Amino acid sequence: MLKEIVIAVDSYFKAHRFISRHRLWKWIIIPGLIYAMLFAISMYFFGKSATGVIEYLTDASGLRNWVQKMQNSWLGFLFTLAGVIIWIILMFFYFSLFKYIWLIVGSPIFAYLSEKTAAIIDGKQHKADAKQILQDMARGIRIAIRNAGWQTLYTLSILVLSFIPLIGWATPILALFVECYYYGFSMLDYSCERRRLSPAESIAYIRRHRGLAIGNGIVFYLMHFVIIIGWVLAPAYAVVAATISMYEIRE
């Protein structure tokens, strides 16, 4: 799996060279700007919402008053740390919902980019096939809904684990890997569809090569630390990199 993660990460560098060489910037910048704007607005409101949820839970349960009455600095530290961990997990959950909405809305662009990337790699003249793009869109939406359901289930389970001392400290990392896997999964499935794999076959194939999905998702999230530029480039780079990494594995 580690080798596949390395391949997925390296594919982002190859994607940058590929996009520059074949002048695909118009398919990157315009949807990227829309994504960056929606991302900034969503994260602002998501952050306030997550804080409100934590404050409500601690007040409603009486936990905050109990910690204050104990007047124990170590207990106060653990209480604060638990709040931070829960806030991070909630932010992952909120962002995953935003991500899946974007995957559904942006599916025409993702399908087109993946198809065009594959055509260029194969040395074929790319002609936009409306029927094929519609099929890719429909499948991409079904996969996104399926992944959203499973990821929500896993995230809620991780949220429960976050309340357990010591074990709960590792839950943000676990939530991140789940998030990365399912995003990369959606990017890789466009290539699986072109290979005429059924959804069930695609799920089995990507599970066998889960390192590609995790690696693709990791770089996607890391790009968000590069404010604005990373937000603009991350979605389209992810789909081009996923397409390239599938060729790397096949070779």
Describe this structure in words.
It is a single chain. With 251 residues, this protein is mainly alpha-helical. The protein has one domain. It contains ten helices and no strands. α7 packs across α9. The relative contact order is 0.17.
List the helices and strands and how they pair.
Blueprint: H1 2-21, H2 26-61, H3 63-70, H4 73-105, H5 107-121, H6 130-161, H7 171-194, H8 199-208, H9 210-222, H10 229-250
Helix pairs in contact: 1-9, 1-10, 2-4, 2-10, 4-6, 4-7, 5-6, 5-7, 5-10, 6-7, 7-8, 7-9, 7-10, 8-9, 9-10
Give the CA-CA distance, first to last residue. 16 Å
Overall radius of gyration: 20 Å
SSE succession: HHHHHHHHHH
Secondary structure: helix percent: over 70%
Mass-distribution shape: elongated
Number of strands: 0
Give the amount of beta strand, in percent: under 5%
The biggest beta sheet is recorded as:
none
Helix-strand category: mainly alpha
Average predicted local confidence, pLDDT: 79
Overall number of domains: 1
In DSSP terms (H or I, runs of 4 or more residues), the helix count works out at 10
What are the low-pLDDT stretches, counting only 5+ consecutive residues below 50? none
From the structure above, extract its key features:
251 residues, mainly alpha, 0% strand, elongated
Précis, in short:
The protein is an all-alpha fold and 251 residues long.
